[in-house]
Specification:
The chain has helices at 2-15, 23-38, 45-53, 60-70, and strands at 20-22, 74-76. By secondary structure, the protein is mainly alpha-helical. The chain has a two-stranded parallel sheet.
């Protein structure tokens, strides 16, 4: 039984993103772009999708965040 638990935990850790973008950085770097191009779409995946669609219009800092998210990084809500 212990072996199964250890293997399950190991597989969860292996599936977790290697790094994550701190939420405070997402807010500071993409907040104004979100308001300008995506107001009213909601948060999370809808906001990311909207910002991705408007990528050419975004500030360089926000574009860098979106690039990281599109490559599979998560958002660290505690960071």
């Amino acid at each position: 039984m212990k072996v199964v638990v250890v293997i399950s935990l190991a597989s969860l850790l292996a599936a977790a993103p290697a790094s994550a973008v701190p939420l405070r950085q997402v807010i500071s770097d993409c907040g104004s772009d979100g308001k300008a191009y995506c107001e009213g779409v909601g948060y999370g995946a809808p906001m990311q999708a909207c910002l991705s669609r408007n990528k050419k219009k975004l500030t360089a800092a926000c574009r860098a965040i979106i690039d990281r998210l599109e490559k599979g990084e998560g958002v660290d809500i505690l960071g």
